[in-house]
Amino acid sequence: MTATPPTGASTTLVGPGIVITSFRDPEIVDGGAVVWRGGEIVEVGPFDDLLRRHEHAARLDAAGGVILPGMVNLHHHFYSALARGLDPGLELTDFPTTLAGLWWRLDRALDADTVRLSAEVAAADCIRWGATTVFDHHASPSCIDGSLELVAGAVERAGLSAVLCYEISDRNGHDEALAGLDENLEFCSSRAGHPSVRGMLGLHAGFTVGDATLDAVARSHRPEIGCHIHVAEDPVDGRVSRSAFGAGPVDRLERFGLLSDRTLAVHCIHLEPAERRRLAEHNATVVHNPESNANNGVGRLDLEAAAADRCTLGLGTDGMSSAMLGSLRAAFLGARAGRHDPHAGWTVVPELLAVNADVAGRFLDRPALGRLEPGAPADLCVLDGAPPAPITADNWFAHLVFGGAATTVRHTVAGGRVLLDDHRFTTLDPVAIADEARARTPELWRRFHELAPSAPEWIVG
Fold first, then answer.
1. Model confidence pLDDT, tens digit, residues 62-111
2. So where are the chain's domains?
3. What is the DSSP secondary structure assignment for residue 320, as one 8-state letter?
4. Cβ atoms 144, 166 nearer than 8 A
5. What value, to the nearest 5°, has the Cα angle with vertex 397 and ends 44 and 158?
6. Distance CA 64, CA 41 (A)
7. 374 preceded by a cis bond (ω within 30 of 0)
8. Element counts in the chain: helices (H) and strands (E)
9. Which DSSP string do the residues of 346-408 spell out, in sequence order?
10. Is 0.85 topped by the overall pTM?
11. Is the Cβ–Cβ distance between 243 and 277 less than 8 Å?
């Protein structure tokens, strides 16, 4: 496989390893290599052949490991990065108290420095785990104006691609919701057509967004921007939406014209089949977050049932980590545990990472994203260690969930730029970032503990 290389750029070859060319119907090249020039792949094939043709290329040693497309994370929360080890100081008995007592206090405590640091910590973790594109859902009510540019700056310094949004919510009042809308619109406008970082509209969840705010969002919304929203993560979303606003979460999104093929409907655990089918009719993407769902005790998305309702299914981490192969494994094991069936998981889960790449390709105007082929973006990662058994077109997914998910990443490359070179970061200094984060976190936590839990009156009333 070859392509005409761009001129004036250096050439790099990674190999030898086992190349898995995509997450959907891949070609497997054992003893293979990938060559790119600038930000574009120019050739994929046997290592010895490519080495002869590109003898002067810079080399990355894959050491027999698995060479994969760079992974896409469809739902992250960078802002949660500094919550690790935080004691909320009160008992979190259910999902609403977890939101009010932990996350809605943490996001209010964030300032510009901790917004930036949270994004830097999370971006470094994305690189560490081979994710080259990320959709982040941000919230910092005390630091709204310019917050997305702070996150974007961290992403750009890291060398990643991203689609960012601010979490619009009425939970602290309508004026704040409109400020969040303005932040989204300004960022989307300023980043329109940007090669690596773009914006979309973000909403928290229907049960914290009033009709007046949804109307303002709908009047400002353009189909090409898209909408990134939590849907039915917990029964509280449907229950409060119906009691306070007279309709369920999917009904309201449909009513306000916010469902399309650029809608990311995150979680969708507690929907009826008819609601899932309406998401499918609008070609929205349902984003599964198995580790976060388990951590919050909110239940499990039945992937098989959602697929039977023709939903397009993607995968995220929801701030729990940046390790997409770990999330993939959790989705696979959750499908088996949830159905009490050791044969489950083979039909739906293998498609998740491919859908992620499809969605990211639409938003970033990179239709070949997620594939290792000539002309595709040079986004890839290399897993450590030679697999102990053959990888074939029939068993590649089993290798990822039973082996790759527990394997470190040796190299990460995004846009042809080596971000992780034999475990060494080239664009960020994660030790320095962690040192600064540890120095600033006590003050963040002090502000957190000074804030009382709060929620809109229609939730607590």
1. 999 999 999 999 999 999 999 999 999 999 999 999 999 999 999 999 99
2. 11-70+370-425, 71-364
3. S
4. yes
5. 60
6. 20
7. no
8. 17, 18
9. TTTGGGHHHHHHHHHHHHHT-TTTTB-STTSB--EEEESS--SS---TTTHHHHHHHTGGGS-
10. yes
11. no
Is the CATH number 2.10.10.20 carried by domain 11-70+370-425? no
Report the DSSP pairing between strands 161-168 and 131-138.
parallel
| Digit-coded pLDDT (tens) for 172-193 | 999 999 999 999 999 999 999 9
289 CB-near residues (< 8 Å, 6+ apart): 75, 266, 267, 315, 316, 317, 318, 320, 327
* Topology annotation, domain 71-364: TIM Barrel (3.20.20)
Q: How does residue 8 score in pLDDT terms, banded at 50, 70 and 90?
A: low
Helix (H, G, I), strand (E, B) or coil at 202: strand
What tokens were used for 136? 């982040």
The Cα–Cα gap between 434 and 153 comes to 17
Residues in the chain: 461
Please give the distance of CA 64 from its chain centroid, rounded to a whole number: 28
Amino acid identity for residue 10 in this structure: S
Q: Look up residue 225 and give its amino acid.
A: I
Residue 3 pLDDT exceeds 90: no
Chain segment 302-337, per-residue pLDDT in tens: 999 999 999 999 999 999 999 999 999 999 999 999
Q: CA 93, CA 153: separation in Å to the nearest integer?
A: 37
Q: Which residue has the tokens 């990888």?
A: 391
Question: In 10 A of CB 64, how many CB atoms?
Answer: 16
Determine contact, residues 159/427, Cβ cutoff 8 Å: yes
